[in-house]
Amino acid sequence: MSVIVQKYGGTSVADLSQIRNVANRIAKTYDQGNDVVVILSAMAGITDSLIDMASDVTKSPDKRELDVLLATGEQTTSALLAITLKSMNYPAQSLLGHQAEVLTDQCHGNARIIDIRAKKIKELLEKRNIVVVAGFQGCDPEGNITTLGRGGSDTSAVAIAAAIKADVCEIYTDVDGIYTADPNICDKARKLSVISYDEMLNMASLGAKVLQIRSVGFAKKFNIPIHVKSSFTEEEGTMVVNENSGMERLVVSGVTCDKNQARITLKKVPDQPGIAAKIFTPIAQAGIVVDMIIQNTRAGGKTDLTFTVPNAEFRTALDMEKKIAKEIGADDVFGDENIAKVSVIGVGMKDHSGVASKMFSALAQDNINIMMISTSEIRISCVIEEKYTELAVRVLHTAFGLDKE
Amino acid sequence: MSVIVQKYGGTSVADLSQIRNVANRIAKTYDQGNDVVVILSAMAGITDSLIDMASDVTKSPDKRELDVLLATGEQTTSALLAITLKSMNYPAQSLLGHQAEVLTDQCHGNARIIDIRAKKIKELLEKRNIVVVAGFQGCDPEGNITTLGRGGSDTSAVAIAAAIKADVCEIYTDVDGIYTADPNICDKARKLSVISYDEMLNMASLGAKVLQIRSVGFAKKFNIPIHVKSSFTEEEGTMVVNENSGMERLVVSGVTCDKNQARITLKKVPDQPGIAAKIFTPIAQAGIVVDMIIQNTRAGGKTDLTFTVPNAEFRTALDMEKKIAKEIGADDVFGDENIAKVSVIGVGMKDHSGVASKMFSALAQDNINIMMISTSEIRISCVIEEKYTELAVRVLHTAFGLDKE
Questions:
Q1: Do A3-174 and A255-399 share a fold?
Q2: N or C: which end of chain A has fewer CB atoms below 10 A?
Q3: CA atoms of A362 and A254, how far apart (whole Å)
Q4: CA angle A341, A346, A351 (to 5 degrees)
């Protein structure tokens, strides 16, 4: 007998027949003698239409009240699932965020979980109930309803799994696992049977479509195995686990790309202490996230400095830097929106030399020029021309032996 | 400065433009320096469609979970109204049933209010907030969501008004007050400016369309004046108050009718102790509500016994009584669905003799035969043939001087 947390996403509870399908899955798990806690999202599209409704009232709806509105989505599916399970003669009970004691900070719309007491969940499990918890929602210390941000139900699920010391947190969604690359770009991409938390965290652009990245950090902290799988098939999905859990290590587990990047270069910046601060402080104050920063070696007391920002913030950042360039006496400022970042990720590369050179050679072989490089312990990223993005993903996927047979 | 509770029904918050209309009314009351607590229903039709959704899952949805589902309706309107008020720069905050501490018993679907602590409401009012409370919902001592039954938001409003010692509880609806008769039947019906709690309680068939009758009992107990008015006009409505509050007493305040009645007669019942119990116990056990009971004077050790039941339960009750008649040795059982009850109501009749005889004469003048009569302190009811219902209402309305000029 295990303690199993199952989380079902919006497409898995999109209508009453889907909810019945979910109820059957839960019943099966329960009948096998397991303790089952279910975390639900709102029906697909509901959260968006509630946001639209609030936006029809005012451009910037009050955040506390928007949370009260949005919380109805998960309340609806939780009640309907409990009604369905009860009608099948299973002992089920729904709990809202505050009833499940999902305690968060006061940051409405993007609250962070502080603590989950889960007293009621444990009591209900002891009486062999199936506990259905409304995902995405919690309450702050004053009892106000909060929500955990887009995809927050994943974090609800992992946090509740941690609180009740579950054996596994199963995340049911409309895809059947984590792939070595985006199958829409690389048709040889294959499903990974296992991946480490750190790889998952580094594969945000692949993984975020499947799993809220914050939930992975939570799972890592409390060492909760996540099993990502489809609610429409019986297939095994992908396990997201601790890298020391005896998993077979691939040198590279996945190839990702990100076209949402733009590059800004300041030419011939006087190389003096404090210059970098002058260049980046205004951008940080404007809330723009800088990803990669490259500074060339100095030549004649001058240096070139290049960095990347999200596409949406490119114009704002460029205008800022043009002003700054004048102030600090830099020669010129260039911008380029037609770039992309490709990355290879794998915990195995820690112990394998030659991963970087293999990546560079593979790209060179197809005449893909590398504009910027950044590396971390388990990831190497290159900035290239945007038009080569798909080609680069396929080339790297093959070069690192990820293609399916 | 007054403490004012305003309750808006489903048609008053049916869409975003109606909600804005409501927000403007609230803002005006607030700007006059009053403390305002607002109780909201769900958008018109929403509660029914949620019930339909649950019924699509199963014929008898779990009552606890149905309450969780239904509670989303008032949560939605409360959040939207608070968002609207905030966007107009008014300090507003929504509270759900459990946040407003509306404590009820555990009778899901038709819970009764045990206590309202209203600590949070009072705190928010002290800081000059407009408090928006989701009506219809409460929570039981274990923290489960409960609902107060059809029209329960009226009871929420009056109970909260009592808890915060409000000066008045304004009930906004789609009619502009309580009338001396149903205007659809009697075109001379006029709006009452004032009516007593007891009259209102006796005018269920008129009043229930406007106000949940349970809320009137609450208002009477805590002496909270209710002001029933339309949210679509600026007109004064009808005040429902204590009869000792100096109101001018009409002998008769209203004429009501009820076609939802059927009559069952047992002929020549042996007049022995315990017979009445044998006749009525099975019906009570089947949950059928008996309204009027008439027993003729005894003749030859036998008596006739007649009673009325709601139309919907007529067939069930008739079949039961046919079996019972055989067991107790009654001669025969008759049923009649084509009857109606007309009543005149007025606290003034306590002090005026001749009301009954005036009623009987008025009906006789138009050849309307009276089949049964029952009286209470402030009401006289007659059962008549159903086809005379509308005529009877008009005749009595004129006879008691209620016609508008």
A1: no
A2: C
A3: 15
A4: 125
Q: Which fold has domain B3-174?
A: Carbamate kinase (3.40.1160)
Do the Cβ atoms of A6 and A92 come closer than 8 Å? no
β-pair type (B379-385, B332-345): antiparallel
**Quick check: A68 and B82 CB within 8 A?**
yes
pLDDT tens for chain B, 405 residues long, are: 899 999 999 999 999 999 999 999 999 999 999 999 999 999 999 999 999 999 999 999 999 999 999 999 999 999 999 999 999 999 999 999 999 999 999 999 999 999 998 999 999 999 999 999 999 999 999 999 999 998 899 999 999 999 999 999 999 988 889 999 998 899 999 999 999 999 998 887 665 577 888 899 899 999 999 999 998 888 999 999 998 766 666 789 999 999 989 999 999 998 888 888 889 999 888 888 888 888 877 778 888 889 999 999 999 999 999 999 999 999 999 999 999 999 999 988 877 778 888 999 999 999 999 999 888 888 899 999 999 999 999 999 999 999 987
Question: By the 8 A CB rule, do A241 and A169 touch?
Answer: no
Residues of A engaging B, defined by a Cβ cutoff of 8 Å: 16, 19-20, 53-54, 56-58, 60-62, 64-66, 68-69, 71-72, 75-76, 78-80, 82-84, 86-87, 92-94, 96, 98-99, 120, 143, 145
d(CA B82, CA A229): 39
Type and span of the H or E element at B305: strand B302-309
Residue type, A374: S
Contact between A82 and B62 using a beta-carbon 8 Å cutoff: yes
Rounded Cα distance, A156 and A153, in Å = 5
Size of interface A-B (CB pairs under 8 A): 112
How many whole angstroms separate alpha carbon A61 and alpha carbon B206?
41
Which helix (H) or strand (E) segment holds residue A319: the answer is helix A314-328
Distance, CA of B164 to CA of B122 (rounded, Å): 7
Residue whose entry in the numeric block shows the structure tokens 């008032």? B74
Contacts of B20 in chain A (CB under 8 A): 57
Task: Identify the residue whose tokens are 């009240």.
Answer: A65
Residues with Cβ within 8 Å of B213's Cβ and at least 6 positions away in sequence, in order, are B200, B201, B204, B207
**Pair B320, B286: CB distance under 8 Å:** yes
Domain ranges of chain B: 3-174, 255-399
Residue B358's SS3 state is helix
How much helix, strand and coil, in percent to the nearest 5, is found in chain A? 40, 25, 35
CATH superfamily of A255-399: VC0802-like (3.30.2130.10)
Nearest to B68 among A20, A54, A75 (CB): A75
- How far apart (Å, rounded) are the C-alpha atoms in residues A87 and A225? 32
Q: How many angstroms separate the CA atoms of B190 and B401, rounded? A: 11
Which ipTM did the prediction report?
0.83
Three-state SS at A106: coil
Q: Do B57 and A99 count as a contact with CB atoms less than 8 A apart?
A: no
CA angle B299, B301, B305 (to 5 degrees): 70
**Which helix (H) or strand (E) segment is A265 a member of?**
strand A254-270
Give Cβ neighbours of residue A345 (< 8 Å, ≥ 6 apart).
A199, A202, A203, A252, A253, A254, A255, A256, A378, A379
Residue of A nearest to B80 (CA): A54
Q: How many CA atoms lie within 13 A of B244 on its CB side?
A: 2
Contact (Cβ atoms closer than 8 angstroms) between residue A75 and residue A96: yes
